[in-house]
């Protein structure tokens, strides 16, 4: 259940209560694709990095080790040893981004595994069953993520099909939650708004899915190559039609500056692989902007990554040491920088919440939007 505590402009401060714990929002979900953060970071590490929610990938866990295997091992939380809430995506995005050959019908999608090419069928019911086996706190509805730019007619038909799929997801989840042996009988369902960058499709689709009274609502199909101003325009278009008393999730976004802008426009929840992916390539987010640790200027720099940061990496290691680790190809370089970036994101969310609590988010937003978007 989502509780709106206060609002400043469109920016919202809230709490999201789940069977696995209460999430303070706005919040960032740390992406553990196959049950672990890439860069050798475990669930135990996440607890020390102020993580609130772990996000795991339905498609990847279905392929390896298999959702039935995870169920036999007690579900994704027991499997990974993460004690807090877990969100699993539906697999829809991976079907459309990773599968080279796919056939979409009303029933669902037939596609080839990106691992070994074997054929897989996934529709709304299959996605719900996989996520039920994983036992996540929140399951995402199965949807079609259409590429931008898209042809209007196809985008319209896709939205209508996604709505019909959502109805099937809701029916199947109700059945699964009542079934004997279900790991999490209180699993929550989020619907996903689609419609590419067409304002009328976005609004109509949001109106339709809002009527279903789901546990939360996501904006999908953005941050997939369209200009940033287009993403902000769509958020502003959709936001007035999103239920005020339900949590709002912007999928796959983004940079610290993106998050600051999206909170300003009324979003509560975020996820993105960017902090861990960029870290593995030597890019560290800081309060002054993004540092490239491969640059020679850090060779003799004894300062921490961010002098205002209290993460384990900044407390213990210098830019010079991290620069050396990357140049030497040491795995520790990735681990330490991933830990810093995740802490930075989670701490940024805490600062945003504190600003909202104090009633000065507008000031925080205006003073941080430029430095957070810089490359040092």
Automatic annotation (TrEMBL):
GO terms for molecular function: glycosyltransferase activity. Keywords: Glycosyltransferase, Metal-binding, Queuosine biosynthesis, Transferase, tRNA processing, Zinc. The keyword Zinc-finger does not apply. Pfam families: TGT (PF01702). Binds 1 zinc ion per subunit. Pathway: tRNA modification; tRNA-queuosine biosynthesis. The active site is at residues 89, 271. Transmembrane segments: none annotated. Residues 10-367 form the tRNA-guanine(15) transglycosylase-like domain. Substrate binds at residues 89-93, 143, 194, 221. Its EC number is 2.4.2.29. The keyword Zinc applies. Its cofactor is Zn(2+). Residues 252-258 are annotated as: RNA binding. Zn(2+) binds at residues 309, 311, 314, 340. Belongs to the queuine tRNA-ribosyltransferase family. HAMAP family: Q_tRNA_Tgt (MF_00168). NCBIfam families: Q_tRNA_tgt, tgt_general. Homodimer. Within each dimer, one monomer is responsible for RNA recognition and catalysis, while the other monomer binds to the replacement base PreQ1. Catalyzes the base-exchange of a guanine (G) residue with the queuine precursor 7-aminomethyl-7-deazaguanine (PreQ1) at position 34 (anticodon wobble position) in tRNAs with GU(N) anticodons (tRNA-Asp, -Asn, -His and -Tyr). Catalysis occurs through a double-displacement mechanism. The nucleophile active site attacks the C1' of nucleotide 34 to detach the guanine base from the RNA, forming a covalent enzyme-RNA intermediate. The proton acceptor active site deprotonates the incoming PreQ1, allowing a nucleophilic attack on the C1' of the ribose to form the product. This is Queuine tRNA-ribosyltransferase. The gene is tgt.
């Amino acid at each position: 259940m989502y509780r709106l505590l206060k609002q400043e402009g469109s920016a919202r401060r809230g709490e999201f209560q789940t069977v696995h714990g209460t999430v303070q929002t706005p919040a960032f979900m740390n992406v553990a694709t196959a049950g672990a953060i890439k860069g050798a970071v475990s669930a135990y590490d996440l607890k020390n990095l102020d993580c609130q929610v772990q996000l795991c990938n339905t498609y990847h866990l279905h392929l390896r080790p298999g959702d039935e295997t995870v169920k036999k091992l007690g579900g994704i939380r027991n499997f990974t040893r993460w004690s807090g809430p877990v969100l699993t995506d539906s697999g829809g995005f991976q079907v459309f981004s990773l599968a080279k050959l796919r056939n979409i019908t009303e029933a669902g999608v037939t596609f080839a595994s990106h691992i070994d090419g074997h054929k897989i069928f996934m529709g709304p019911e299959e996605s719900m069953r996989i996520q039920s086996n994983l036992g996540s706190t929140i399951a995402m509805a199965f949807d079609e993520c259409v590429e931008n730019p898209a042809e209007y007619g196809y985008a319209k038909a896709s939205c209508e099909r996604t709505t019909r799929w959502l109805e099937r997801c809701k029916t199947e989840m109700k059945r699964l939650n009542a079934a004997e042996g279900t790991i999490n009988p209180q699993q929550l369902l989020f619907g996903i708004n689609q419609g590419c960058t067409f304002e009328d499709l976005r609004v109509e689709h949001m109106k339709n899915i809002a009527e279903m009274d789901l546990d939360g609502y996501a904006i999908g199909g953005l941050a997939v190559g369209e200009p940033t101003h287009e993403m902000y325009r769509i958020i502003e278009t959709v936001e007035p039609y999103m239920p005020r008393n339900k949590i709002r999730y912007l999928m796959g976004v983004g940079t610290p500056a993106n998050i600051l802008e999206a909170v300003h426009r009324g979003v509560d929840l975020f996820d993105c692989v960017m902090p861990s992916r960029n870290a593995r390539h030597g890019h560290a987010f800081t309060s002054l902007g993004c540092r490239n640790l491969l640059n020679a200027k850090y060779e003799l720099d004894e300062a921490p990554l961010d002098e205002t940061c209290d993460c384990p990496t900044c407390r213990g290691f210098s830019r010079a040491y991290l620069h050396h680790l990357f140049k030497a190809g040491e795995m520790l370089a990735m681990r330490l920088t991933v830990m810093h970036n995740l802490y930075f994101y989670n701490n940024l969310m805490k600062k945003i919440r504190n600003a909202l609590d104090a009633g000065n988010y507008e000031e925080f937003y205006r003073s941080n939007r430029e430095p957070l978007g810089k490359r040092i």
